[in-house]
Every structure is written in C-alpha cells, then in structure tokens.
Design goal:
The protein is mostly helical and about 300 residues long. The chain has two domains: about 160 residues, no CATH class; about 110 residues. The chain has eleven helices and two strands; from the N terminus they run αββαααααααααα.
Length: about 300
C-alpha cells in the first residue's frame, strides 16, 4: 500500500540520509578500532567506574533524535543522520561485551555479526527506499518544505562529506567513460578471485589475502564466485552486459556470503577484500545503470524467451 494513502509522507532525502548513516557508522567503527589499537586501548575510568564508548554512542544517538524532533530544516536532519551514524558506530562496536558472559570486547565472532547487521540494514533500507516511487503529493510536500526551510548553513562535516561524494562520482564517471576500464576491472576481479581461491586451497601464500583458518563455507563461496566469473568470461564475447551481470552476481556472492566468514576468521584484516569488492560492485552497478541493453541484445533476449515459451 502506498504511504500517501495512509497520510504518511516520505522524505525525498531518505536514501541519502540512510546512506550517510551507514557510511559514517562503518567509518566510525574502523577509525575507533584503529585508534584504540594504536593507543593501547585506553579507558575513561574513575576508580571502579568505567565509561564505555557505547555510552557516548547512545548519547550521540539521543542528540540526533532531539535535533530531528526540534527542527524541520533538511540541513539539520542531515546533520542528525551524520551524528547518529557516529553514535551507532560507537554503540555497535562494543557488541562483543554484551553477548558474552565475560564482557569480551575482542570476542572473535563480533566483527562478523556487526557485518551481518550492516548487510541487513542495507537490504532493509534499499527495500524501503526502492519499494515505490514518491507520489505527486509527496513530491509537492517535499518541494514546499525545501523551498521554505532549505539553507546553505550546513556543517563543515556535511560539506566535506558532500564534497568527497561529489568528487568520487565525478572521478567514477570519467574513469568509466574510458573503453578499457570495464574490461580491466573484470580482468582484475577474475585474477583476484582466482588468487583468493588458490590461497584458500593453500596452493599459494600471497600474504595479503585474509585466509587463515578458513572454513568450508568460505571455500565454497570463493569457488562459486570463481565459477560465476568464468561464466561471465564465456558470454563476454556475445554480450558484454550479460557478462557484467554474471560478474555482479559473483561480487554480490563475495560480499554477502564469503566476506561474512572471512570477517569471522580474520577480523578486521578482511576489510581490505571488502573494500575491493565494494569498489568493483560500485563500478559494475554504475555500468549497468548507465548502459542499457542494446537493440541486438534486447532482441536476442526476447527471442530466447519466445523459444522457451513455445518449447513449453
């Protein structure tokens, strides 16, 4: 059921704010863990009292809620999304303390559980935002609010985030416009997939792949990902778009299955593989969205479907 039929109006900036929340949360966890490791895990303590950084996270999330309750301005709401991202990152970072009897911050499965939480959040957010397009009424309400309340007085943090995001998109557009880039990315992904698979089997030890004490699921995920990549290579000559679809499936398998167990086995050292996968996925997704199927490919797909229907 559409939200406007219930009297509810969605925010047209929801996708950007949810993205901001996720990005800042992940960045906060990585920065916080790196800071603690470099400084010897200091504590804010007074006698028998210890102030965990989870409490600071809860405080920041409360501050962001108060900002949303008190102001309508879109710029303030974006700032609240940024602050809540920092707060949620600090909060969820201490998950290990609250799922173990001995309050173990270094509980090995913690990073994998946090990773799963972020995957679920991403899928929920994506479903929420992409469920239905905004109705005309929702568009009108959003435009009215922004025309009345929008201002340029955004925080430096938000301006910095927007600047980096804009530069990233511009850079991505320029890079993907080069004809050799997509094949180059695919070749790189194929090679890294094969190296990862070989490292899991113990054939090689490149030193930069997080392959210590790997599980059968990690092995299976890497193997299936390599198979999908090989299928993509086989169809590349007949249809680049179909090949890229197979590569996208391979990357998604890495992100949603293999990486979960790599984080469990190797903790934060697995983040480098995830970064590579996310960059490859971003390039592939951008290519598919900006390069629709050609008439020849479309006709081929239609004829294939017709043959299947007639055959059945």
């Amino acid at each position: 059921m559409r939200s406007d039929r219930k009297g509810l109006v969605r925010d047209s900036d929801a996708a950007d704010m949810l993205e901001l929340l996720l990005v800042i949360s992940v960045a906060t966890i990585l920065i916080n863990r790196a800071f603690l490791a470099l400084t010897g895990y200091p504590q804010i303590a007074f006698g028998s009292f210890h102030i965990a950084h989870m409490l600071w996270g809860g405080l920041l999330m409360l501050v962001s809620l108060i900002m949303i309750f008190y102001y309508w301005n879109p710029s303030i709401r974006r700032l609240a999304a940024l602050i809540s991202g920092i707060g949620f990152g600090l909060f969820i970072d201490e998950l290990g303390k609250f799922i173990t009897q001995d309050n173990d911050y270094f509980f090995k499965p913690t990073i994998a559980i946090i990773y799963i939480i972020f995957i679920v959040m991403y899928l929920i957010f994506r479903r929420m935002v992409g469920l239905n397009p905004l109705s005309q009424r929702e568009i009108t309400v959003n435009e009215t609010i922004r025309n009345e309340l929008e201002s340029s007085n955004e925080s430096r943090l938000l301006k910095g985030y927007d600047y980096v995001r804009s530069k990233y998109k511009t850079f991505l557009n320029r890079i993907l416009a080069m004809q050799w880039v997509i094949p180059g990315i695919m070749i790189f992904f194929v090679l890294t997939s094969l190296v990862q698979f070989a490292a899991i089997l113990g054939w090689i030890n490149p030193g930069w792949t997080p392959m210590e004490n790997v599980s059968g699921i990690s092995l299976t995920g890497a193997f299936l990902s390599s198979i999908l990549v090989l299928i993509g290579l086989l169809v590349l000559k007949s249809s680049r778009r179909k090949a890229v679809h197979w590569f996208k499936l391979a990357v998604m398998l890495n992100i949603f299955v293999t990486q979960v167990f790599l984080f469990y086995q190797s903790q934060l050292t697995a983040v480098w593989g995830l970064i590579i996968d996310l960059l490859i996925y971003a390039c592939i997704d951008y290519y598919l969205r900006n390069h629709p199927a050609s008439n020849r490919e479309y006709s081929s797909d239609r004829s294939t479907q017709s043959e299947r229907i007639s055959g059945s």
